[in-house]
Amino acid sequence: MTPEEYEQFKEAEKQHLRKLKELKKEHQQLARKAKVTKAVTDMADGVQNLYDEHEEMVDRLERGAVGSEARLEVALDSMGSSDATQEALDAAQLEEDQKAIQKAKAQELIRQMKLADGAPDERPASSAKSVSEAKADASETKGEETPSDLPEKTIGRMRR
């Protein structure tokens, strides 16, 4: 092989490799494009499936609501006159209102009686006995030890 043939053969091989490299690059780009297209198509199909499922659920709910509404209307029609029902509801409401008015009058009467006796509604804090003072008074009347002789907190029972 002559050096010129060698150079021609070498140049042809380079062109072939360049062409092969270019074809591989295009194949990779097309494969990437196909993956993206498939992903987008799958997403669109998923969205469409969700939309169809949503529509089906809404239709089911609407049918159920229509059925319930029809049953309600039939039940109301079968109850007879709505005037009798309304009168019964009004009577029950009137009775509740009368009880509430009676209770309010009783509370007002109690308040007026307390004011007439001069007794305040609540004792002031300064005149109220503390819990320990009340216990001391109770124990003195019973003849027991005063709370000051006993510890404030104990575990278990106190010994006498």
Summary tags:
about 160 residues, 2 domains, about 0% strand
Describe, in plain words, how this protein is organized in 3D.
There is one protein chain. The protein has 160 residues and is mostly helical. The protein has 2 domains: 1-78; 84-117. It has 3 helices and no strands. It has helices spanning 3-78, 82-117, 131-142. It is elongated. The termini are far apart.
In terms of per-residue confidence, which ranges show pLDDT below 50 for 5 or more consecutive residues?
121-129
**For the report, how would you describe the main beta sheet?**
none
Q: What is the number of helices?
A: 3
Strand/helix succession = HHH
Whole-number total of structural domains: 2
Number of strands: 0
Instruction: Please state the structural category.
Output: mainly alpha
In short:
With 160 residues, the chain is mostly helical. The protein has helices spanning 3-78, 82-117, 131-142.
Secondary-structure topology with pairs:
Layout: H1 3-78, H2 82-117, H3 131-142
